[in-house]
Amino acid sequence: MGFCFVVAVVALLTDFGFRDYFVAVMKGVILSINPGARIVDITHEVPPQDVFTGAFILKAAYRWFPPGTIFVAVVDPGVGTERAPLILKTRRYFFVGPDNGLLAPAAEEDGVLEAYRIEVRLPQLSSTFHGRDVFAPAAAYLSLGVEPRLIGSPISQWKRLEIPEARVVDGVVYSRVVYIDRFGNVYTSARSLQGVSYGEVMCVETPRGVLRARYVETYGRVSPGEAVLLINSEGYLELAVAMGNAAATYGLRPGDEIKIYRC
């Protein structure tokens, strides 16, 4: 097509893992179209088919990338069905992936300007690997400066996905587990503990019992093995165990309800 190769960042997020060849093949397709692309891995360890966790990670990560970055997110249990392959153009970025809610929290936070259903694809389109056949080529052409209107047709609607918010009733914080990191730290949907001072001990009610956790500024303020509550780097109220694994210790999983109140 006579494109000039340009340096563009393409950031990948999938549930493919690294055991198989899937991630490498997507990178190969992108580099075959634009050898000058700079490919960054956000993660490929999203739990299989877990669209919500993928969306949460994408929302947490995207804002730290330079303007113009093209995010390709593939957590796609509906691959090969009627769900649309999507480009969302926002104020600063492009988001490419399935229209199943995966892209929405990040893209909508940045501000969606235009949306497109992808029509460009590799000749040998499969029904099970749109990461290779649809999303990687679309991202590669975007990285060359091709306008999204030349890659797909405009649409006005896409699937939303809401990250739950906490609520406070009579001093009790009602929240949900929204993410668990590799350390077993439990992100809740709460953003603060209003009126609580550092050092106070709070009761944390989980589906598997009530525990006591100290509200602190950082993990090192308590002894190893002690449960803590703190505001983490993403601004979420987190339940952690110093030098331990809170999720495993208390049997917590994404979606669990957590109530927090003064003991």
Write the SSE topology.
Blueprint: E1 9-14, H1 22-33, E2 38-43, H2 51-61, E3 70-74, E4 85-90, E5 94-98, H3 104-110, E6 112-118, H4 130-143, E7 152-154, E8 167-169, E9 172-180, E10 186-188, E11 201-206, E12 209-215, E13 227-231, E14 237-241, H5 246-250, E15 257-262
Parallel strand pairs: 1-2, 1-3, 3-5, 12-13
Antiparallel strand pairs: 4-5, 4-6, 6-7, 8-9, 9-10, 9-15, 10-14, 11-12, 11-15, 13-14
Helix pairs in contact: 1-4, 2-3
Domain S-adenosyl-l-methionine hydroxide adenosyltransferase C-terminal: 176-258
Keywords: S-adenosyl-L-methionine
Protein name: Adenosyl-chloride synthase
Label the overall shape.
elongated
The counted number of beta strands is 15
Named CATH topology of the largest domain: Rossmann fold
Strand order of the largest sheet: 2-1-3-5-4-6-7
Total DSSP helices: 5
Which percent range describes the beta-strand content?
25-35%
Q: Please bin the fraction of helical residues.
A: 10-25%
The CATH C-level class name of the largest domain: Alpha Beta
InterPro entries: SAM_HAT_C, SAM_HAT_N, SAM_OH_AdoTrfase, SAM_OH_AdoTrfase_C_sf, SAM_OH_AdoTrfase_N_sf
Protein name: Adenosyl-chloride synthase
Domain S-adenosyl-l-methionine hydroxide adenosyltransferase N-terminal: 10-151
Keywords: S-adenosyl-L-methionine
